[in-house]
Structure prediction request, 61 residues.
Amino acid sequence: MQKNKLWATIPVLIITAKTLEDHEREFLQPRVASILQKDGLTSIQVLQQLGMAISLFNERN
Prediction:
């Protein structure tokens, strides 16, 4: 996505039920806007987290 100028500004959000290993998180963090771990969150809580991540991304850019 980063190679295409039109796509480079699209925020990538990772939503996972997996517990990420440190090396996985270290790899992903500089490449994505946010990593959300569901860890028992309700659908509403996941959507709230997504909204906050998108707002934070918009503030930074």
Q: What stands out?
A: The longest strand covers residues 13-16. The radius of gyration is 13 Å.
